[in-house]
Amino acid sequence: MNNSKFPNDFLWGGAISANQCEGAYLDDGKKLNVSDVSKGLLSKPKMKWNGARWNPDIGNEIILNHVGNDFYHHYKEDLALMAEMGFKALRTSISWGRIFPNGDESEANEKGLKFYDDLFDEMISLGIEPVITLSHYETPLHLLTEYGGWLNDEMIKFWMKYVVTVFKRYKGKVKYYLTFNEINNLFKIPFAAGGVLDINPKHTEYVNQDLTKADLYQAAHYIAIANAKTVEKLHEIDSSAKIGAMLSLSSLVTYPKTCDPKDVIAAMKFQHQQMFFLDLFCKGIYPGYIKREWKEMGINLKIKSSDLELINKNTVDFIAFSYYKSCVIKDGEVMKTDTGGAYGANNEYIKTYSPEPWKWPVDPIGLRYLCNFLTDHYNLPLFIVENGIGLKESLNGTIVNEDEFRIKYLREHLYQLKEAIADGCNIMGYLYWGPIDIISAGTGVIDKRYGFIYVDMDNNGNGTFKRYKKHQSFNWYKKVIESNGEELD
């Protein structure tokens, strides 16, 4: 009989990223990364072409990533609050530019290495397992402006120097790594998610990617080589550590609008778009649907047989993913996307939406469907490393507004996660995004608050930065962890 209980070694906790919380964006030797010149993923990067090269042109515009929630200076306080909730694990990222500020240096920045030593030591001392993303929208800007980023195969060399430095330095401290955060977003936000930039543009305005589909597939191939080499090298340096792919998989939960076969095929084709990197990283193959696309579009990539052998031999140990919402597709409809996933036709069967202004459809059953889909296709352990709800909240001595909605959202998703476990899915853990208020990747503001911990800061970067428990959800999640998911009501 399958067990509907969470495993005893289940990794409960939360997830954040360096670029959304650390701040201190030029401290201790760090230099600019892609997130430091973007107000948010939904806006154009503040980069201007001067006729010879791209230069950052931030001006006086507020970029909250520069201050984050000041986790760089508050991490001990923040980790203590997470430990109070009983966290077994915390996902964050290493900002590549703290270790190699430009990305192409011969020697690592010791101050950057020391910060993560201290951070991981503090986590471990509190019983919190570090789950570390190697690249979370934090590619050093210099690598894009000087080399074109992942459009250039030299990036593989720079990347491998970085990851080998990290693996050796933190051997025995970090047991779980993720390679590239939501790398399938390369095709919709190539500058930030894919780390690519056209260094010979046809225009002279602000960044407006003159990139073809062939360019992005070539970058994806170099990334796939880097991913395979990273898996190979970690297993060589620290055989006890595990490494996973991390993808945005909300859009994999795409329902056909009707049972019209054309709608069903439209849903299948849209799912294929989400499966491309899964097939590359988990199966080690270029699937037939991609080869068909290349043939029909006349795309010819630089791919060596040795590349294919490397990718096929070095697949990931587990699948980590984000899930926020589902979507519906109708044949002929152009799907739109935001940072939570895709949206198309209306789903009249979903009655619950997150409050204004975001109004994301809440579909907990979609999480069960996704876990089963991944298990059926890839048969790997699964790690939910992003799932949560952003709400408008304010501080008046106590936290007010939508905390009950957050609990309802969490409860219903965790119920469906138990169902997925009963279905036979191997679930490693659940890391809520994000347990403390951080800067929104999509909009570059802080007033889309996900956390169990409120940070006194506004969209202009003003505030005391004092931390407050959102007592209702803070204590509820603490009880869930204490009971290993048995007390959801």
From TrEMBL:
It comes from Breznakia pachnodae. Its EC number is 3.2.1.86. The keyword Cell wall biogenesis/degradation does not apply. Pfam families: Glyco_hydro_1. The active site is at E386 (nucleophile). InterPro entries: GH (IPR017853), GH_1_N_CS (IPR033132), Glyco_hydro_1 (IPR001360), Glyco_hydro_1_AS (IPR018120). This is 6-phospho-beta-glucosidase. Belongs to the glycosyl hydrolase 1 family. GO terms for molecular function: 6-phospho-beta-glucosidase activity. Keywords: Glycosidase, Hydrolase. The keyword Hydrolase applies. Gene3D superfamilies: Glycosidases.
